[in-house]
Inverse folding.
């Protein structure tokens, strides 16, 4: 068998290690099969880069940028954007209730309490079961009541007619809780103005997934 030296790797190999090619004198390429394969895959990789570059350039053309912007403003475009975001955002729901619309889709869940007042009252009777969800809530509670125990007391006094609605609330870190919102009117002595005033508190809370704690999500005047 005749050997032939590959011009690329300079290794002498038997003729059947070279691809056949009619126009070559000995009917074979001067580049061995191994080197030919390497070149093909290298060329392929280069083509991918080339293709990606081409796409990138094309997508940054002014009329294409405009077209994307226009599309993103249409109903279809908005839907597509929400859909693609949904693939990435995993909603972490910490409340016992997790049905209804997806958090992020729609804030309002409904106009029927998600958690029975009986359970909420029972839980709130133990101030240790009342958790303030965010730093902002902790600050609000501190300003309004002075202590967490007082907001627990407010929860134990909730009445059905004070219910407003139920909605998704987030702590801003991708964590969601399905909450019942109540408005509580109370006559209170306000030392700042030295007189009794009608105060109205808005309280939002959820029972946690473990069924054991009430997360106070929002509390303000
Ligand atoms: Zn070679």
């Amino acid at each position: 068998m005749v050997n032939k030296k590959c011009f690329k790797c300079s290794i002498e190999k038997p003729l059947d290690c070279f691809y056949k090619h009619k126009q070559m004198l000995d009917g074979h390429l001067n580049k061995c099969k191994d080197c030919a394969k390497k070149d093909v895959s290298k060329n392929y990789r280069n083509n991918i880069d080339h293709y990606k570059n081409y796409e990138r350039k094309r997508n940054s053309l002014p009329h294409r940028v405009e077209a994307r912007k226009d599309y993103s403003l249409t109903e279809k475009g908005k839907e597509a954007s929400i859909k693609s975001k949904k693939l990435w955002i995993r909603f972490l729901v910490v409340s016992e209730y997790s049905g209804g619309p997806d958090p992020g889709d729609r804030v309002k869940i409904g106009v029927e309490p998600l958690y029975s007042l009986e359970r909420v009252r029972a839980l709130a009777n133990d101030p240790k079961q009342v958790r303030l969800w965010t730093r902002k809530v902790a600050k609000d509670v501190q300003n309004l009541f002075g202590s967490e125990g007082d907001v627990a007391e407010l929860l134990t006094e909730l009445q059905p007619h004070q219910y407003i609605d139920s909605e998704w609330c987030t702590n801003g870190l991708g964590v969601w809780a399905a909450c019942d919102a109540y408005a509580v009117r109370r006559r209170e002595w306000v030392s700042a103005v030295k007189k009794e005033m009608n105060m109205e508190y808005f309280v939002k809370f959820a029972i946690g997934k473990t069924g054991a704690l009430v997360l106070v999500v929002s509390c303000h005047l």
In short: The first strand starts at residue 3 and ends at 5. The chain has a mean pLDDT of 84. The chain has three domains: 1-46, 47-90, 108-220. Residues 33-59 form the longest helix (27 residues).
